[in-house]
Specification:
Layout: E1 2-3, H1 7-19, H2 31-40, E2 46-49, E3 51-52, E4 55-56, H3 58-66, E5 71-75, H4 78-83, E6 92-94, H5 99-109
Parallel strand pairs: 1-2, 2-5, 5-6
Antiparallel strand pairs: 3-4
Helix pairs in contact: 2-3
Length: about 110
């Protein structure tokens, strides 16, 4: 599952994962569309952009945690992500990122 509000980054993530043999759910640009998708299916892992415009992906992270789905935060503001919520520690990948790093991380989580 990909949740990313920047359409160029979202397309790049989607292409990267598809090229590496993954099925992709999304991308979704906001919390509501991501939560709606989670009502329909359960992903094996999720990539969550922390900042989604004027909201954060924390509601999605909580829902994924309740379903025991591993997730990774993507953010250009890593320190803010780590300090901004009460969830257990999760990997935080800094933007800009190296696509191969994400693929390896997702393979490990799956």
């Amino acid at each position: 599952m990909i949740v990313e509000d920047d359409p160029f980054i979202a397309m790049d993530l989607e292409d990267t994962f598809r090229e590496n043999g993954f099925d992709v759910i999304g991308p979704f640009a906001d919390v509501d569309s991501g939560l709606s998708a989670l009502k329909e299916c359960t992903p094996d892992v999720a990539m969550l952009d922390y900042n989604l415009g004027r909201e954060t992906s924390i509601p999605l992270a909580r829902t994924l945690r309740e379903s025991d789905v591993p997730y990774v935060f993507l953010s250009g503001q890593v320190d803010r992500v780590v300090a901004a919520h009460d969830l257990p520690p999760r990997p935080v990948i800094s933007k800009p990122f190296v696509a191969e790093t994400l693929v390896v991380l997702v393979e490990d989580l799956v």
